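Figure 2 data, in text form.
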Amino acid sequence: MRLLLQQEESDRNRELLSELFKIEQYVLMVLQYLRLESESSDLVLKNQSLDDIIRQAVKKYASLFIRKKLTLVYEPVNCQVLTDEKWLEFVLEQILSNAIKYTKGGSVAIYMDDQAEKTLVIADTGIGIAPEDIPRVFEKGFTGYNGRYDKRSTGIGLYLCRRVLNRLSHTIRIESEPGQGTQVYIDLNTVSLRP
């Protein structure tokens, strides 16, 4: 009996920590939104190790990978990119958050696209995105079919990703099929930087 009570308390604590993590993520998203809307820019552009940024983002979500029993497929990409470490990490975290949220079982893979130079791919085996929703996923507030599936969707995450990446002179696109997962492509080439 005592062991059962301890297990129930441990489960409750894990659930509380999970909810606290979600709240922290929503607060962070709001703060990043406000920073992005600000006239001043806090971009610090340097050549960065993409692997270091990926590892930081993955580490943040490690407990969710474990809790959902998802496999992470990642080998070092050995790539240097001209970017802002903090903002790119925010983008990767948003994409990983979505991949984990919409993948019940299976995997999330992170790799470089062998067809396009300096293009990072984050692919999941999740529920996918309806074809009619794909053109609108970067619109502010758009949640689409999957937003009705997960009532807590805000429609702000991918909007912020595109805004941040535009500011960094990177681009993002998504390919997906319902029931077949989603692939997010981030082109990390730097063409022209905008304030």
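Caption note: Residues 2-37 form the longest helix (36 residues).
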